[in-house]
Amino acid sequence: MMKVNRNEKPMRVAGANLQVAVKGLLVNYTDLGPEDAELLLFVHGFPFNASMWQDQLDTFQQDYRVIACDVRGHGQSAPDTEPFSIPLFVNDLLGFMDTLKLDRAVLCGLSMGGYIAQHAVAASPSRFHALVLCDTTCSADSPQARENRLKTVEELEKDGTAAYAEASLTRLFAANSLRTKTAIVENIRKTILETSVQTLTQTLLALANRQDTCQALPNIRIPVLILVGEEDAITSPAAAHLMQQNIPGSQLQVIPDAGHLSNLENPGEFNAQLRSFLSRVFSQPLSN
Ligand code: MLT
C-alpha cells in the first residue's frame, strides 16, 4: 500500500482566476511562474481586484512565482457574511497562504493592500522576505476623512455606484493619465462599477475604522521598498516619506507621471524599481 505523507505540499494548480476555499471563504486568485522560484504576493487596493496587477504578473512571471488574490467581496472572491475589517482581510491573506502552503513571500500591497500588508507583516513577520508598500500610508483616517467615508456610504446606498465611480476616477489618476491613458481609466471605471454596493460600503467602513500602523513601523526588520506616484492625491508622497523615515533601512522611490495607481499609470518605472529592489533582496543571504 502507498504511504501518504501528510506534510507534503498540495499539488500546485497554476493559472488565472483559480478558486480555493480558505476556511470556508471562496478566494479567487492567479498563480503564475515557476513553482520553485521566489514568490511575489500582490494585494490590490480599493475597490479593485487582482487584475490590477496584470502588468506585473506578466512581467515578473519569467523569474518569479507571482500570485495575486482578490480581497474578500472584491473581484470574484466571495463576500461571506462577516462585517469587513482590515484584521479580517489580514486573516484571509494568512489563511490563503496556509491553504496553498506558501512558506515565504515578498508581499506587495497597493493602498488598501498596503494597509493589509503592514498588518500581515506585524502579525507574522517570519512569513515574509520583504515588503513593498505602494501608494499607501501608515496613518489612520483623520476625523474629516472618516466623516467623508460615512457620507459616501449613505450616498452609495441611496444613489448606487455611477456618481461614486466618476468622482473616484478624478482622485485616483494623475491629470495627464486621465487625458491620455484612457484604456486604463476605462478599465478601472468598469471595475468600480462591477463592485457590489455591499462590498463598497462594507469596505469603506473597514477603511474608516482601521488602526494607525505608524508606531509599529520601526519594528519591521525585513527589506522594504516604498513606491508612490508623484501626483498621488489620496496617499501623498509626504505620507510615503513618513513611512520611509520610520522603517529602518527602507527605500523610497517616487514614480513620475503617476497618481494613486502608480503600477498602472507608469508600469515601466514601477517595474524597474521593483526589479532592482528584488535583485538586491535576493542577492543577499536570506534571514531565517
Ligand atoms: C485604495 O486605493 O485602496 C484606497 O484609496 C484606500 C483608501 O481610500 O484609504
What attributes does this structure have?
binds D-malate; 288 residues; alpha/beta
Total E-strand runs = 8
Total number of helical segments?
11
Q: What is the quaternary state of this protein?
A: single chain
Output the helix-strand order.
Answer: EEEHEHEHEHHHHHEHEHH
Tell me roughly what share of residues is in helical segments: 40-55%
What structural category do the secondary elements indicate?
Answer: alpha/beta
Biggest sheet, in brief? Answer: 8 strands, mixed
% residues in beta strands: 15-25%
Cα shape: globular
Task: Give the names of the bound compounds.
Answer: D-malate
Write structural notes for this entry.
The protein is of the alpha/beta class. Helices cover 43% and strands 17% of the residues. The chain contains eleven helices and eight strands. It has helices at residues 54-60, 86-99, 112-123, 143-159, 162-172, 175-180, 182-194, 197-208, 237-246, 262-265, 267-283; strands spanning 15-22, 25-32, 39-43, 65-69, 105-110, 128-134, 224-229, 251-255. An eight-stranded mixed sheet has the order 1-2-4-3-5-6-7-8, sandwiched between helices. Helix 3 (112-123) links the parallel strand 5 (105-110) and strand 6. The protein is globular, with a radius of gyration of 18 Å. It starts with 14 loop residues before the first strand and ends in a 5-residue tail after the last helix. The mean pLDDT is 95. Bound molecules: D-malate. Residues 45-46, 111-112, 207, 234 line the site of D-malate.
Give the structure's gist in a few sentences.
43% of the residues lie in helices and 17% in strands. With 288 residues, it is an alpha/beta fold. Helix 2 packs across helix 3, helix 4 packs antiparallel against helix 8 and helix 5 crosses helix 7.
